[in-house]
């Protein structure tokens, strides 16, 4: 069963229980030329015109940190609906004239902003003046401004966890030296690759990876149509496959959130109008407890979102 339309604001509280005894959520998402916040009752609370993105974050004050044209990192004032800070990776930091795309950005606790630059193949941290205060080089066999990286996160301890989409590999880089300290090639599980973006495609183009509290890594496998949990010893100890959820077909599995209660929220991009854009599951039982069915609003290429009412900060 598919639950009500979800929610999207930036300061959080749970509305009453719904569906399977859980609450519907607010959600922030981009799609169909708009960035929007949808309430748990399905109402659009806020929106502004905005092009495709691969990453976004609601900041503590309610502003949104995201990308513009996959090259410029921006902070949007949600009240005024205007950009109040930006860093252009296409022209700054020695990148002028070079192919560069930005697919991951992260606000850091010290006020810096982490930016993963595909093409130049590096992670930079910039301060609010636009100065690069730290950088590490990424290990990339065949640089490609569109496919070098997808989501990147600075994790506890200061290392970087990087999804290399083009290579189908997740690498952990030492936060200071840039040395690769852990690497995991996403498996194809015996299947042949198939081109495309929808449910018919297949590959291992990892989109997101999160380091769990116990040390394992949760990976959204992109066109692998699922999610896997991998131990530091590279053993797959949990797996969600394309048809494991009744009534749901997974396509390009994108962003992940681990909610404070332990449930997973999974992004389901390019899955068509008959499948939800977001699914919340209880990982042990793989029971669906909530879905977000706003294809009418966001279309078929909504790759990133944030649940805004989960209580304490989710892991994302």
UniProtKB/TrEMBL annotation:
<dbReference type="Pfam" id="PF13360">
    <property type="entry name" value="PQQ_2"/>
</dbReference>
<dbReference type="InterPro" id="IPR015943">
    <property type="entry name" value="WD40/YVTN_repeat-like_dom_sf"/>
</dbReference>
<dbReference type="InterPro" id="IPR002372">
    <property type="entry name" value="PQQ_rpt_dom"/>
</dbReference>
<protein>
    <recommendedName>
        <fullName>Pyrrolo-quinoline quinone repeat domain-containing protein</fullName>
    </recommendedName>
</protein>
<dbReference type="InterPro" id="IPR011047">
    <property type="entry name" value="Quinoprotein_ADH-like_sf"/>
</dbReference>
<feature type="signal peptide">
    <location>
        <begin position="1"/>
        <end position="23"/>
    </location>
</feature>
<dbReference type="InterPro" id="IPR053143">
    <property type="entry name" value="Arylsulfate_ST"/>
</dbReference>
<keyword id="KW-0732">Signal</keyword>
<feature type="domain" description="Pyrrolo-quinoline quinone repeat">
    <location>
        <begin position="34"/>
        <end position="291"/>
    </location>
</feature>
């Amino acid at each position: 069963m598919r639950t009500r339309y979800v929610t999207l604001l930036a300061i959080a509280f749970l509305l009453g229980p719904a569906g399977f005894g859980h609450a519907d959520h607010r959600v922030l998402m981009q799609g169909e030329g708009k960035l929007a916040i949808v309430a748990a009752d399905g109402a659009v609370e806020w929106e502004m015109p905005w092009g495709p993105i691969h990453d976004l974050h609601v900041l503590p004050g309610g502003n949104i940190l995201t990308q513009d044209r996959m090259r410029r990192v921006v902070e949007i004032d949600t009240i005024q609906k205007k950009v109040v800070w930006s860093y252009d990776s296409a022209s700054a930091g020695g990148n002028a004239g070079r192919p560069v795309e930005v697919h991951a950005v992260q606000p850091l606790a010290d006020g810096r902003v982490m930016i993963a630059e595909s093409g130049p193949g590096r992670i930079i941290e910039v301060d609010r003046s636009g100065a690069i205060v730290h950088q590490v080089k990424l290990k990339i066999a065949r640089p490609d401004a569109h496919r070098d990286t997808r989501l990147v996160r600075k994790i506890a301890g200061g290392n970087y966890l990087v999804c290399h989409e083009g290579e189908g590999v997740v690498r952990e880089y030492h936060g200071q030296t840039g040395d690769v300290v852990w690497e995991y090639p996403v498996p194809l599980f015996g299947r042949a690759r198939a081109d495309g973006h929808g449910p018919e495609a297949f590959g291992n183009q990892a989109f997101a990876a999160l380091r769990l509290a116990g040390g394992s890594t949760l990976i959204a496998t992109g066109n692998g149509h699922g999610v896997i949990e991998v131990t530091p010893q590279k053993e797959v100890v949990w797996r969600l496959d394309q048809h494991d959820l009744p009534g749901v077909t997974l396509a390009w599995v994108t962003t992940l959130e681990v909610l404070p209660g332990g449930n997973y929220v999974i992004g389901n991009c390019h899955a068509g109008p008959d499948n939800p854009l977001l699914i919340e599951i209880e990982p042990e039982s793989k029971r669906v407890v909530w879905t977000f069915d706003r294809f009418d609003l966001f279309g078929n290429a909504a790759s990133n979102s944030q649940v805004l009412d989960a209580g304490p900060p989710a892991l994302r």
